[in-house]
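User: Please fill in residues for this 355-position structure.
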């Protein structure tokens, strides 16, 4: 059943689904990039600050080594000595470990950005299910992670062995070196080892991130029905939208019809178009279109105009031009001033307002 569901998920995830997944803490993230960042920062540290750090670490050891004959070997003295040595070493090592921790955290933020997902922290009873836990352990993803880890450790171990091998073949001469020479050899080996491992981790991290991205996007895929349902939720049901649009048009038409009795003239085609104009000379700079329509709606405008004794003037070119270029409640544009002024003048003369 699960395989059928996966097979039906053929559509790429929408931005809305990816955004919702991000809010729930589901993002593409590769642990290998964190490991790579740690190794890379360690390589830079050893390369540029290694000698100074090694010297600061070795100094306390040399001090206790050189003055060892002065150290009392009773239990209290040894405890105090050990505590002092741990403190000296910790002061030098802990900042480095803290820096590596910050590097790993920054590499995670670099992959996903800052995420606030409180839902991820909420406890779920389903998470303590033994059955689900066994399924999770035995899942294909877990097996893939185990194979990947074994392969990575084998590859890194082989590379480390090849780097250390030259030193191992000459191990019999190391006792003839003093401490600083041994540290110098260890420093060189550390640099080669870190550079080699970092190079391998770069390749592994790139491959793993690509795989994690592919796996995540595959997991987020949607069925055609899910895409349709999401579109309906986002844009609204087409039938409901059509109904709302129809209601708005009917209301606008009703408002338009109530404005016809206030018009000063209705310009007609005479049968196909009708445009009602209002002009209050003391209040308006130009006549205003208060209603327009064609065919049945034009007939209704003429009918209301006749019922309210609004003059009707036949002027087919002007009626068609006004219908096509002027919206409701919009003033007549300048190119129609002359033709409209002629109609308005004619109506005023009919009303006896002009001689």
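Assistant: Residues filled in for all 355 positions:
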């Amino acid at each position: 059943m699960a395989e059928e569901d996966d097979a039906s998920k053929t559509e790429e995830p929408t931005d809305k689904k990816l955004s919702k997944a991000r809010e729930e803490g589901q993002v593409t993230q590769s642990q290998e990039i964190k490991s790579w960042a740690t190794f890379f920062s360690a390589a830079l540290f050893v390369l540029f600050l290694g000698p100074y750090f090694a010297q600061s670490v070795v100094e306390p050891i040399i001090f206790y080594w050189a003055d060892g004959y002065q150290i009392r070997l009773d239990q209290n003295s040894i405890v105090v000595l050990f505590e002092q040595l741990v403190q000296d070493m910790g002061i030098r090592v802990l900042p480095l470990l803290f820096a590596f921790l910050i590097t790993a955290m920054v590499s995670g933020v670099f992959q996903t950005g800052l995420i606030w997902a409180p839902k991820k922290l909420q406890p779920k009873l389903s998470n303590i299910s033994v059955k689900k836990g066994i399924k999770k352990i035995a899942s294909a993803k877990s097996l893939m992670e185990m194979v990947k880890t074994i392969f990575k450790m084998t590859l890194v171990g082989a590379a480390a062995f090849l780097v250390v091998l030259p030193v191992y073949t000459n191990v019999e001469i190391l006792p003839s070196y003093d401490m600083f020479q041994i540290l110098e050899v260890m420093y060189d080996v550390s640099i080669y080892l870190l550079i080699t491992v970092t190079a391998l981790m770069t390749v592994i991290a790139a491959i793993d991130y690509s795989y994690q991205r592919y796996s995540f996007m595959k997991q987020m895929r949607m069925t055609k029905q899910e895409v349709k349902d999401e579109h309906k939720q986002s844009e609204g049901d087409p039938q409901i939208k059509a109904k709302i649009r129809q209601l708005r048009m009917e209301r606008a038409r009703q408002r338009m019809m109530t404005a016809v009795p206030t018009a000063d003239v209705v310009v007609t085609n005479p049968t196909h178009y009708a445009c009602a104009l209002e002009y209050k000379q003391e209040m308006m700079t130009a006549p205003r279109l208060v209603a327009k329509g064609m065919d049945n709606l034009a007939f209704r405008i003429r009918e209301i105009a006749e019922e309210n004794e609004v003059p009707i003037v036949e002027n087919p070119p002007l009626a068609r031009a006004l219908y096509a270029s002027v919206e409701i409640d919009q003033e007549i544009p300048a190119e129609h001033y002359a033709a409209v002024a002629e109609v308005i003048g004619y109506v005023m003369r009919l009303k006896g307002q002009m001689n």
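For context: The mean pLDDT is 76.
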